[in-house]
Each structure stands twice: as structure tokens, then as C-alpha cells.
Design a protein that fits this description.
single chain; about 110 residues; mainly alpha; two-stranded antiparallel ribbon; 4 strands; about 50% helix
């Protein structure tokens, strides 16, 4: 069932989330690791770029509430502390501090 949702079912002419022809994809200007090595602000720029692209492409009608990540990127964010004096992870920070949450007040779900 999850496989069909993600990849579709060709015999039934169903497109999946990862294979749908109507989904626009693009390459990130930087990886999270590279951005994080620079600064938290650089990471916020990388994270907010696709969020803002969706908001702008829909004339501010749609605001995403989920951010789909490769497991390696998710794990990096989930296991990296925001700074040396805090136990907050980068992932916890990003759930609250992103362009979508600033508009809606609801935390972004990173999956």
C-alpha cells in the first residue's frame, strides 16, 4: 500500500508521490551538510527555498506542511545539535523556524 502511494501502480494507471508527472522537482543549491557547515542562516535558506517556491507558484494559496527528505538528510538534522550550548537538534529548530510555520503557526513535519 505504501509502495503504491510512493511509486504508483502502472497497470492501474496510478501515479505515485515520487513518480507523479505533475510534481515539480529541482536540485537544491546546497546540501544540508554543506549549508550547516556554513551557518544556520545558510541552512534556513536551503530549507526555505522549496517552501517559498510552492507558496509563490500557487499565488500564496498553498502552504506546505510536510517536507520529504532522504533518510540520510533526515538523520543528519535529527542528530545534529543546533549549537554547543543547547540540546535542541537542528530538526527541532527547523520544525518551528521555517517560512511555512511563520505563515501558519503550525510546525512543519519533516519526514
Amino acid at each position: 500500500c505504501q509502495n503504491v502511494a510512493l511509486n504508483g501502480d502502472t497497470p492501474r494507471n496510478l501515479q505515485g508521490l515520487l513518480t507523479h508527472s505533475g510534481i515539480t522537482t529541482g536540485a537544491a543549491a546546497s546540501t544540508f551538510a554543506t549549508a550547516l557547515a556554513t551557518s544556520v542562516d545558510a541552512l534556513l535558506t536551503v530549507v526555505n527555498e522549496p517552501i517559498n517556491a510552492i507558496i509563490n507558484a500557487t499565488n500564496q494559496i498553498e502552504v506546505p506542511d510536510r517536507y520529504l527528505l532522504p533518510i540520510s538528510q533526515f538523520n543528519l538534522l535529527a542528530t545534529t545539535r543546533l549549537n554547543t550550548v543547547s540540546d535542541q537538534t537542528v530538526l527541532e529548530f527547523l520544525r518551528q523556524k521555517n517560512a511555512a510555520t511563520a505563515r501558519t503557526g503550525r510546525p512543519m513535519e519533516f519526514i
